[in-house]
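Tokens help. Our protein:
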Amino acid sequence: MFPYVSEVIKTLRNRGIHTFIASGDRAKSLYELAEIINIPEENVFETANTKRKREIVAKLQEEGYKVMMVGNGPNDILAFEKADLAVLTLEQDEEVSKKSF
């Protein structure tokens, strides 16, 4: 987990902003992360591939949310395109594919 993640999530929550996790990572790891950073289990979407992430963004938008998608690479492109705002993170010290821009 990157530094300040817990503080960022806490700040968002205090401002009434809902946070969700959609990842291709193992479900167990995602639920552990959600518990650590205090995101409700129902806001966790596990084993989400590229298309599934886009579907999740679309579903949240249909529910009335404005969606800011934060991701780190090509597996997030479709969700980036669908989201109201997209943020590409570079903190993980991995080479970022040009497709992500």
The chain has a mean pLDDT of 88. The radius of gyration is 13 Å. Helices lie at 5-14, 27-37, 50-62, 77-82. The CA atoms of residues 12 and 18 lie 7 Å apart.
